[in-house]
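Hi R.,

As promised on Friday, here is the backbone we talked about, encoded as structure tokens. Could you run it through your design pipeline when you get a chance and send me back a sequence?
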């Protein structure tokens, strides 16, 4: 595995990270970094520990050894600074049954203190190809449309690190092209992107470096 962690300019730094579940090692001796404006893709087999690592990066799980720092600070999901820095789409994103797609995005934008939540919700729905579904409730969306809404919820937040677990899931080919261009745009804005993906086209299109999960054990 390439080791990028020795650079001082890394926004996200993972050092000697390990996570065990009893006898099972999800990953160990993981070292890498992601600089602002760069995308790191983690690839590897099912069960190789990729999602578990992302959970540790976003503070939903904890390492048994090693460290993860974001902009020089330890992971702390309860700190306002962390909330304003890290936007993640991992696993199934929870939705409120009674809120429309547009209202969901307004809610997220409002929660993060974004100016003009109504306007950013409208613009982002259009960006993700959901303008026509703005007034629909989550239950009436297709799985691909739900995935687009989940991604949109990350794009209405302030963020300097974007963490995505298999964002290509459920997307059609137009959706995957949109995703690749959206991630390119994120990089241009200076966001560091950490991506787990099984889509080699997406990885080839957007990743500046690739971490191979299979080499962790
Ligand atoms: N909470 C947990 N308790 C026990 N074992 C767990 C837990 N979470 C994950 N594991 C185990 O850790 C290993 C890594 O799982 P993980 O979901 O991180 O893999 P992955 O690389 O994301 O796989 P996939 O490509 O299928 O999404 C698996 O063997 C899994 O069973």
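Update: got your reply. Pasting your designed sequence below so it's all in one thread:
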């Amino acid at each position: 595995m390439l080791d990028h962690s020795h650079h001082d300019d890394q926004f996200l730094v993972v050092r000697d990270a390990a996570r065990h579940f009893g006898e099972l090692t999800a990953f160990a001796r993981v070292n890498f970094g992601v600089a602002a404006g760069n995308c790191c893709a983690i690839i590897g087999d099912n069960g190789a520990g990729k999602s578990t690592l992302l959970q540790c990066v976003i503070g939903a799980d904890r390492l048994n050894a090693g460290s993860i720092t974001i902009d020089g600070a330890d992971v702390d999901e309860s700190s306002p600074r962390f909330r304003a820095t890290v936007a993640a789409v991992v696993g199934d994103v929870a939705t409120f049954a009674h809120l429309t797609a547009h209202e969901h995005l307004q809610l997220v934008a409002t929660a993060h203190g974004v100016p003009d939540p109504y306007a950013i919700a409208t613009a982002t729905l259009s960006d993700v190809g959901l303008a026509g579904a703005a007034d629909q409730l989550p239950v009436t969306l297709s799985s691909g449309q739900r995935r687009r809404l989940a991604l949109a919820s990350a794009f209405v937040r302030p963020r300097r690190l974007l963490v995505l677990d298999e964002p290509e899931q459920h997307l059609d080919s137009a959706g995957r092209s949109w995703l690749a261009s959206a991630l390119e745009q994120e990089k241009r804005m200076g966001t560091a992107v950490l991506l787990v993906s099984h889509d080699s086209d997406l990885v080839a299109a957007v990743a500046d470096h690739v971490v191979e999960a299979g080499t962790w054990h």
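One thing I noticed while checking it: The radius of gyration is 17 Å.

Thanks again,
M.
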